[in-house]
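hey m, so remember when u said the tokens were messed up on ur end? i reran from scratch. heres the input so u can diff it against urs
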Amino acid sequence: MIGFIGGSGIYEALPLENTREEDVTTPYGDPSAPVTVGEFAGEEIAFVPRHGRDHQYSPTEVPYRANIYALKKLGVERVIASNAVGSLQEEYPPQTLVIPDQFFDRTRHRPFTFFSDGVVVHQEIAEPYCPHVNEHLADAAEAATDADCHLGGTYVCIEGPQYSTKAESEWFREQGWDVIGMTTVPEAKLAREAEMCYSTITGVTDWGVWKGAEDDRLGEVLKNAAANEEAIKGLVEHAIRTMPDERDCDCATALEGTVNTPADAIPEETRERVDLLVGEYIDD
């Protein structure tokens, strides 16, 4: 099964058939909304609207752990996400797509791991997005859309919901970072902890404040987001149709050798909570 996390506009644009809603309970609360599962091109697709059906969750308030856990529980192995971002570089104007291969975490108030309360897991995250899915998405973009799409780049993730100050934006540019948004962290970290492939397609909606704020910034963002959604729809449709059956990456075994706590020292309640994620590695 392939999971998709993004805005409702993408889901509504995909021609899913035989849809159903799954009310998935998780130890980390409820997902942003019931998970919609449907069929497309012979594949089962599970969709979660990141901010809720009515965009009621701010970037800080999104139940990231519940969303990822719910997809894992349903059997999802690969997650494709979409994010609206601002551009930090001249070569990425609005309505450009960027498939990042790195992020820089500037968030402060979000639970960012499944593992706590008596179990310590040191997860490798040097390459936070699945390189194989990234390449597949880039190939799909070239085949299925006229949008300008770039593979690689750094997504700096800020807490939000406010945009950056001009000083912050200029500093991010000086670091050589490419796009700025509010939602790839901790989503990418949690997907790796759940041993799922995870990649995101970011759609540039506006220039950062470094280039001068728009008089109607939200209006500009929404206009460009709508154009990006159409391009992302074509990309995702082609990517799903041509997705290889087997995963040719290390994401499926990402937790191997990462549990630092002896099995007999992990509280029973904690073991029950994380069993779906790491049970095979902490069996007595």
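this time it looks ok to me. The chain is about 30% helix and 25% strand. if urs says something different then somethings off w ur setup not the seq
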